[in-house]
Amino acid sequence: MDGTVLAHGLGGAKDLPIPVDMAVAGAVAALVISFSVLALAWRTPRYDASRGGLPLTVPPAATALSWVLRALGMAFFLYVAMAAVLGEDTLVNPVFGSFYVLLWVGIVPASLLFGPFFKAVSPARTLAMLVAKLTGAPADRGLLPYPERLGYWPAALTLFAFVWMELVFPHATQLGPVRLWFALYLGTMLIGSAVYGTTFLARADPFEVYSTLVGRLSVWGRRDGRLVVRSPLANLDATPVRPGLVAVVGVLLGSTAYDSFRESPTWLRVVQSLGIERAWPDTAALVVFTAGVTLVFAAATVATGVSDHQARRHLPDLFAHSVVPIIVGYMVAHYVNFFVEFGQRTLIDLSDPLTTGADYLGTGDWQINYWLSMHPTVLASTKVLAIVTGHVLGVVAAHDRAMKLLPRKHQLVGQLPLLFVMVGFTAGGLYLLFAS
Amino acid sequence: MPRRRLIAVAALTLTATLGLSACGGDDEPTTTPASPQGSAPTQSGEQSPDPGSGSEVEQSGTRIELTRTGDVFDPSGARVKVKRGEAVTLVIVSDTAGSLHVHSTPEQDVEYRQGTSTHEVVIDRPGVVEVESHDPDLVVLQLEVR
After folding, report:
1. In A301-326, which positions are buried (b, 16+ CB within 10 angstroms) versus exposed (e)?
2. CA gyration radius, chain A
């Protein structure tokens, strides 16, 4: 508020730790439910992307609507870009809230409600489509076909670049670095899509890949190109499997866990006693968390008997979709209060993007509602519920996939390592919420 | 079917084990965030040896002692539990003047001088509030406001 630039993350007070009894109750519930699923759930695969779901008739006006959405996404981007270029370098500049809160955290609720939300409004995609229109090339194909063996690896890399910027980089809340990051991002996306078409964006754009993945937990799906409404678990099962998917979910889950860890008093004492720039041990910890989650999960998926025609090395990516509900549960737990409160703050600040006293959007005189902060028990229960719900959905998704992939005699025992790892992720997540 | 029963039994056993071990394992850390025993911040709530001098409201608050020697703070990142709406008294002993930022919403600044100075901050919403020094950039305290 005082207009000085502080080398500190966004937001003021952070959430209180969750009470220990809630953390333990959550972990025990996760464990009991997991083994109940294993012991009692169905024995033949239930979800099948090629059937099921209620087909919807898309009205012709939908094409027009999609361009309206693109225009809105572009207008918002340009509005925030204006604040990024012409606005003051202070925390009341809405750039930071728009980037780290509305965009990054907002991807989760928006995609849960509307499916692949970012794809529909992405300025990078809109620009790529306009360029393709001007040159007369088909938008989805560029000069070269996208190398399929790269899969989602570029997105794992760009997602890491985002979370590093957000969680590690000491100057994450200064305009210069944010502008530079976004310019590099946009440049990479435009060059990539010029070469490989918009397919590149579906594999490399961190926001689009993340949003489309979370959108798999919405009710909106596609079957043979038709829009269908179906259960989120059936929708999740239809997630396309590509190389690197396991790294994408590893970066998303590991970085959220790291976000709790970095604020724990224990880690704080360690980094502050080292006497070196905090970014170094923080970078190391972020790598350990993201790579650790990826490797542990991958190891658990391959620790099973397989049939002759199933290559073991494909298993991590084949099971990776089951981490998506766990990610969403974590994200809700970590960011629900931050999103609600700093989101309000951002909407207020957006009305005066250049700090000139303007009130362009009419939101300038809103007051922030701190109800959630004032009710820590409600907040803590929400967090535990989100994590346990995500865990249960993840276990169910993994179980169904195991029924499909594993030979009959390995179907149950083959799931055990994965189940243990998932319980470990959930208990670890709860522990971090309790200890940070 | 025996396999199925076996798994059910295994499930129950594991549940019980984890339930127990979780309880056992989590008992210990509950004390960790409470207060940095033996280090500088003293939570001198009731034993404040100052019955004569007036205000009884402040007596129930928390008193935290901070020392700055050069670029080194003691404590450095300790977690202290405080009550919301109550005055937290920071006693700062420093060999240079400087300022601390209290990252509540809205932020509060504490400007301290060379020598010993006493400051009060009040935080009226629950949460964990970091008290930071800038130059050097360090988290000095985390106030766990309940």
Report:
1. bbebebeeeeeeeebbbbbbbbbbbb
2. 22
Q: How far apart are CA A15 and CA A259, in angstroms?
A: 12
Domain ranges of chain A: 20-435
Identify the pLDDT of residue A215: 97
Pairing, β B72-74 against β B62-69: antiparallel
Cα distance between residue A101 and residue A91, in whole Å: 13
Q: d(Cα A64, Cα A87) in Å, to the nearest integer?
A: 33
ipTM of the predicted assembly exceeds 0.95: no
Q: How far is CA B69 from CA B58, B92, B114, in A?
A: 28, 11, 11
Residue A141 is predicted with a pLDDT of 81
Query: What residues contact B2, with CB distance under 8 A and at least 6 apart?
Result: none
Give the residues of chain A that fall short of pLDDT 70: 1-9, 11
pLDDT in tens, A340-359: 999 999 999 999 999 999 99
Residue A281 pLDDT: 96
**Is A265's CB within 8 Å of B77's CB?**
yes
Q: Which of B79, B103, B126 has the CB atom closest to A373's CB atom?
A: B126
* Nearest residue in chain A measured CA to CA from B30: A20
Q: Torsions phi, psi of A220, nearest 5? A: -95, 120
